[in-house]
Structures are given as structure tokens and as C-alpha cells.
Amino acid sequence: MRFFPRFFPQCCCFAITLAAGIVHAAEPGVSDTHIRLGMVNAQTGAASGLGRAMRDGATAVFQEANRRGGIHGRSIELVVADDGYDPDRAISETLRLVEEKQVFALFGNVGTPTTNAVIPIVEEMKVPLVGAFTGAMTLRRPVVHEIINFRASYDDESDALVQYFVSRGIKRFGVLYQDDGFGNAVLDGTVRALQRRGMQLVAKGAFQRGTTAVKAGLAALIGHDLQVVIMAGPYTPVAAFVREASQAKLKAALATVSFVGTDSLLQLLGTEGNNILISQVVPLPEERTLPIAAECADLLARHVPAARLSFVSFEGCISATLMVAALRRTGADLTRERLIRSFETFERLDLGGLQVTLRADDHQASTAVFLTRIADGRIVPADLAPGAK
């Protein structure tokens, strides 16, 4: 009988260890050999260039991690679903991946209205959502525990655009915006940027998501003696507006934010887009002296040879690199909560020349904004003189 008291704690320890093992094994999307991630974004439709480029950049990084032995012996499996840049489809596809496909985390959503639509799902089901291609403040303030952002916010981008023009003596601003969460985020960010400088927005015009019906929005901007119009939309309606504005002899300078999809916009406009100012949240992809740019270009060539390093695929690559770093830091005992806590420990983490910081009270890794413009049908730094090569 004296053996039992000594044996009982050992039994308890064994039972606790076994129970912990069962809990670990039951973590959705994690097995001894795989970590399943889900990507819900536009693979078809007017914004599909953004979704496919995010997929390409992330795929290159995840496949390279797998080639090197995976994450603590586990391979990353990326399951991609198409929401067509439609919030209702984003909800249904997210639920399908979380409930049926049992993904461990979500990665690389594209768009403010679609990402906003799934916030209640990630909060309720405690599913991490990492690296969404949107700068909406709804994903940043207040901090949503499950959401980790890489990119600068639309407030950051709007402020950089306003500062660029104000420093050149421009005072009369207008905004053309997609009438949804994305467009309103850029509109609000622009208004706040102007107010910080003692200025007001002069005029605004809107268009509906999923259309190129921009004539009414243009009409709302004409006749106000605008010096600049900041455009908030994806590449297809923005290209339509640029052409309509040219025909209407709108004299204002034109600018837009990174969500436009710079490379897709350039394909649509070519030299018609000359002098459009575009804010970016990643450096020029051609800046190969930056280690992360050279690495992402090499990884795309190796794993997704049909793709090239664009602004969007570069962001997908960087966000995936951050994801891999967090998965590695979390360790072999991988849970959703431990992953979030790992992200929150990054202090000036060097991602090949880009430094990022995340904390429990700040889930936005970068505030960097890079200004570019179209010149001679190509993308150059904004401060490069016209005609310079």
C-alpha cells in the first residue's frame, strides 16, 4: 500500500502529459507532417491580379520552406479559395476552409470589404489571420488579437500622398473612391491627413465596387478647380477613371494607393498613366540590392517560374516570410494562441533589409510607405526627375 502514494503522482503526470498530447494533436490544421493554411481572396474577377500575385509570392516562400525540411519537420500546405472580391463569398469560403478543410490559420486575404466581413469569424473561432492585403484601420485599431498585419495602413499611405503634394504647394484635394469599406478607409485617411495640416477636402466622387461606372464620380469632381485627385480603387476602375478624366480635360494631378495593383494598372494604361503618383508599402521590386527583394525574385523563379516579382507578389513573399519566421519561433508544440504570442515577440526583426516590430498592443509590423510614379510607361521612385532613366 505504501507503493500507491508514490505511484499516483506518476500516473497523474502521465495522464496530464497524455491529455496535453491529445489537445496538441487535435489542433485544427496541424498534424505530425503538415501545417494547413487557408487563403481566401480574388482568384477571378476584376481584382484577380491581386489575389493571384499574393498567392504566387506566398507559394514561393512556403515551398522553399518545405524544400528545406519544413517547419520543425512539418510541411506547409496552402489551400486557396476564390471569393471574387465579394464579401458574401469571402464569408462562405472562409467558413468552408475553417470548418471543413480545418485550416490552422488564414493568410493573404485581399481587400477591405472582404476581410472586414470575416473579422467576426476569426474572432469567434480564434483563427489567426495573417498578412491581409489591406490597410484598413478596422484591422488595426483597436487591435484584433487574431489579426496580424504586415503592411502600412491606408492612413499611413494617405498621409504620405498628402504630404508629398502639400510640400509642393498644392492645397485643393479631391478624392475618387470605391463606395465600400476600402474606398471609405482611404477617403477618411485623406480627410484626416488634410485636417492635420489645417486643410479641408474640396470635393469627392464615388463609384460602386465591381464596376467601371466612374462617370458620375468624375462629374462630382469637375468644376472645383482641383489640383490633385486621390483615387481609391483597384486597377480596372482606376484605369477607366484615368481615361475618362483625360477625355474630360481634368487638369488635376492623379494619385492612388497600393491596393490599386500597380503592375496591373501599368499593363492597362502604359504611357497613358504617366505621372500618376502611387504609394507603396514595399520597396521597388527591382531594388535587388535589398536582400529580401533578391531572395523573393529567386524564390519565384525557382518555385513559380511563370510569375515575376511585382509589388503585390513581393508583399505576398514578405508576409509569408514573416509567417514562416513566426511558425519557426513558435516551436514544435504549435497552437494558434502560441503562434499569435510568437508574432508579438518580434522586435526589429530583420527580413532581409526590412525591419519589422510587433507587440501585443500593435499588430502592424511596418509603417513604411514608398512613393512611386509612372514615367514613360514604367514605375520609378517619385522623386526621379521626368525623363530620367
Q: Can you give a write-up of this model?
A:
- By secondary structure, this protein is α/β, with parallel strands linked by helices.
- It has two domains: 34-152 and 286-358, Response regulator (Rossmann fold, 3-Layer(aba) Sandwich), CATH 3.40.50.2300; 154-280 and 371-381, Rossmann fold (3-Layer(aba) Sandwich), CATH 3.40.50.2300.
- The chain contains twelve helices and 14 strands.
- The protein has a seven-stranded mixed sheet with strand order 7-6-8-9-10-13-14, with helices on both faces. Strands 2-1-3-4-5 form a five-stranded parallel sheet, with helices on both faces.
- Strand 8 (228-232), helix 8 (235-247) and strand 9 form a beta-alpha-beta unit.
- Helix 2 packs across helix 11, helix 5 crosses helix 6 and helix 11 packs across helix 12 (336-343).
- Residues 1-25 and 385-389 have low confidence and may be disordered.
**Quantity of strands, as a count:** 14
Q: Strand order, biggest sheet?
A: 7-6-8-9-10-13-14
Give average pLDDT, whole number.
Answer: 92
Proportion of beta-strand residues = 15-25%
Query: Which radius of gyration do the C-alpha atoms yield?
Result: 23 Å
CATH architecture descriptor of the largest domain: 3-Layer(aba) Sandwich
Structural class: alpha/beta
User: What would the principal axes of the Cα set say about the shape?
Assistant: globular
Task: Compute the number of helices.
Answer: 12
Helix content: 40-55%
Number of domains: 2
Q: Could you state the order of secondary-structure elements as H and E? A: HEHEHEHEEHEHEHEHEHEHHHEEEE
- The low-confidence runs, each spanning 5 or more residues with pLDDT under 50, are 1-25, 385-389
Task: State the fourth-level CATH superfamily of the largest domain.
Answer: Response regulator
Largest sheet: 7 strands, mixed
- Our measurement of the CA-to-CA distance between the termini, rounded to an integer number of angstroms, reads 89 Å
CATH topology of the largest domain: Rossmann fold
State the name of the first-level CATH class of the largest domain.
Alpha Beta
